Amino acid sequence: MAKRTFGIDFGTSTIKVYKNGNGIILLERNAVTTVGKEKRPVAIGEKAYEMYEKAPPSIHVSLPLSRGVVSHLKDMVALWNFMGEAISGRKKLKRCQFYIAVPADITEVEKQAYSKIITQSDSMPQKVCLIDKPIADAYGLGLDIERSRGIMIANLGADTAEISVLSLGGIVVSRLLPYGGNDFDRAIQNYVRKNYNIVIGLKTAEQIKIELVSAVESDRSYTVVGRDVLKGLPGKITITSREIYPLVKDIFYIFAAQISSLLEHTPPEISSEIVHNGIYLTGGTSFVEGLNQLLANEVRIKINTTDDAQKTVVAGIGYLAEHPKIAAKYAVPLEQ
Length: 336
Fold this sequence. Notes:
By secondary structure, the protein is of the alpha+beta class. It has eleven helices and 19 strands. The chain folds into three domains: 5-136 and 312-334, 2-Layer Sandwich (Nucleotidyltransferase, domain 5), CATH 3.30.420; 144-179 and 249-304, 2-Layer Sandwich (Nucleotidyltransferase, domain 5), CATH 3.30.420.40; 181-247, Actin, Chain A, domain 4, CATH 3.90.640.10. β9 (97-102), α3 (108-119) and β10 form a beta-alpha-beta unit.
C-alpha cells in the first residue's frame, strides 16, 4: 500500500478527504475566493463561503461544482492546490495516489474533469482512479455488494440526487436528478422577495431551510433581516414553516416518484431483495425532518437512514483507498 493514499468526495456543497491510516482528515465547503487575472486563491472552504454575496468586485467567490459536474475547472484546481498545502503542511503533496468518487450517471468527459482537478494541480500524483459514487456509498454503509443481489441507494445531496440499484458488485441502473437542497434555498429566496418585497441572499435562505424545511407540516418560525425593495432599507420579517412547506414538497414527491420509477425498471429478482432489505438513504438532504417516513409511505418500502449520511461516500472511497485490490475491481486508472 502506498504510504500516502487519499480518497476524495468532491461534493457540490462540501469536499471530504480521507487519508489512509488517518481516516477523514478534511471536511470543507466547496468554495474558493480568488483575486487577480491569474485567479490566485486567498481563501477556501468556510472562510471563502463567508465572503459569498459580500465580496467587492475585485474578489471572486466561486462555487466550482454544479449539478454533479465540474463547472469551473480552474477554480477547482486552485481550490485543491490550496487544500493540498493545508493537508501536507510545508511538504509538497506529490507522488500520492488518489481515489475520487464521481457520479455514475454523467458522461465520460465529465468524469475526466474530476481527474483533471488532481492531474492539473501541483500535486503531481502517482495515480488517479475514479470510482462511481454508488459503489463508494455502498462500502461506506458497510454493505456487502459482492454478494447482495439487490441494493438501492438514494443519495440526496446539495445539487443532485443520485438513485442507484446495485447487484453482485455492479451498478444495474443509476439516475442523477438535478434536484437537491440548494433548490430549497432558491425557492425560499424567490418566495420572500415575491411575498414580502424583501431581498435576502442565498446564505440567509439556507439558514431558513435549516430551521424550517420539513417533509411534514410543523409550526416553527424564524426571523430574518433583508433589504426592503420598496423602501431601500433593511427590513425584518418572520417566516413560518407552514409557508415554506408548499415551496419544497414537490421536490420530496419527485424523489419518491423517481425511486418508484427506478424500481419499475429493475428486474424482479433484484426488486424482491430491495423490498426485503429496504432502501438506503444518504446525503445531506436526507436529514430533512420526516423525509424518510414520507418516502416510505409513498414507495411502500422500508427506508434505512444513517447518522453519517454526509460521510458515507468518503468513508467508502477511503475504505477502497485502503484496500487497492478491492478497489481495482471498480476503479479506472488514468494515465498521467
